[in-house]
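User: Predict the structure for this protein chain, please.
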Amino acid sequence: MAPVSIFMLSFQIEHTHQYTTKMKQNLFDLVPTINERLTIEKEGELIVITFPRFRSKFLLRFIPKNKPRMIRISLDEHGTAVWNLIDGRKTVKQISNALAEHFNHEENYEYRVAMYFAQLYKYGFVKYKK
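Assistant: Here is the predicted structure, written as C-alpha cells:
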C-alpha cells in the first residue's frame, strides 16, 4: 500500500443553504470552532463534553426514566490536548504543529490529529470555517 501524504488529505463539507453541495477542501486549511450546543467541563486535567441525547424537546419525552437525558464523553489525554487548542482562530495545521511536542514527534502524528478532527466533525462536535 502506498504511503498517504497527510497534506493531500481532502475533507468533504456539506453546506446547507437552499440546497446541499459538497466541496473538497484541505482539512489542514480549515479553522475548527466548537459547536455551541455542547457543554464543556473539566474533570481534573481532562475535558468532558456533555450534550443532549436529542435536540428536540418532543423526543425527550420518549427517553425512559432510567436513561440519562444528557450524553457525557470524556476525552483522553490526547483528545484534551487537541480540544484545548481549538479557539476559532487556529487552523488544523497550526493546531497539529503545536501538538508536535505533545506527541513526541511520532511518525504520522499529523494523520492522527487529522482523523481526530474528521471524527469531531462527523459527530457534530466542531464546525469549520475558512
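The domain at 28-129 is CATH 3.90.930.60 (Outer Surface Protein A; domain 3).
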